[in-house]
């Protein structure tokens, strides 16, 4: 495909304001690009105006997954932008706009690679499945839905196109966001014995949870330690009343050494014990994500590294990432396949105003995903 057309696809995607919603417009646009080709297009609706999109190409052979999310984070204050966030602007070799890094460039490059492969008039020795998800930025629930409905079960390998400057992200931490609420009975503070203070058991919970998480002192060699922060606490409404409600939130970054399930159990044991002593605590989680165990020994990671080192003059290092990705969901699929995260844009500008990708990185990515597909089909056919 000509560079101009490849750039138009990215620019068009950035022009769609899919900030935490309206992903269907992205799905419509992508589906339309493939309408004249022998592919299978499946929409998986999450909610109104929020379609995940699955595109299958190829007839037989190893199945490579390409994953990208259709949503972006909101632009924030427009005062901080030098160009309109939802209109791609090219200046000094960089393309600016919301999603230029995270991650419409990765998604577009994957789509361009697929279109080029379909145009190549060669018989393809393998298959590709594009998994375009909704709601990655606000909880990875699109990928969760696709996984639950089996769209990842038969993959032989998966590349997530989050921006990494063409380095290969082989592992990342998981996340557990949790809320604990405490119930009490409010009375005048001059007669506290008649009431029940909601704040005190919550403080006990905070101390015990912190101590328990701090006791997890085994350190992942790449990801570092599990971390835990009690991030918000609130309760009561009046200085001379016994508070009848209080709540706190915590944020835990997990590593494969301490799986999420273990952590849930530990938190719930603390809650149960305090409740036995008379507290009324409840805990809930907000879109927890599991860590991605290190993939550096997988064939997929190695072949990606080899292709990048051969074809490009940057990227190709195995690195770890701090945040969770859709990998946290796809890893729950039935098949046991490797997952790597690799995208052309620099990742350090994600979520920032004036987010950008060098045009050259994006165009490199379009070719790189094609090369990776060919190499993957060769290696995984063996
Ligand atoms: Zn992203």
How would you portray this structure in words?
The protein is α/β, with parallel strands linked by helices and 382 residues long. The protein folds into two domains: 3-172 and 292-381, Aminopeptidase (3-Layer(aba) Sandwich), CATH 3.40.630; 174-289, 2-Layer Sandwich (Alpha-Beta Plaits), CATH 3.30.70.360. The chain is 32% helix and 24% strand. It has nine helices and 15 strands. The chain has helices at residues 3-15, 23-33, 104-119, 141-148, 199-214, 260-276, 299-311, 327-330, 359-381, and strands at 40-47, 50-57, 63-69, 89-91, 94-96, 127-133, 157-160, 168-172, 174-183, 227-235, 245-254, 281-289, 318-321, 339-341, 356-358. The chain has a six-stranded mixed β-sheet, with helices on both faces. The radius of gyration is 24 Å and the shape is elongated. The relative contact order is 0.19. The model has no long low-confidence stretch (mean pLDDT 96). Zinc ion binds next to loops.
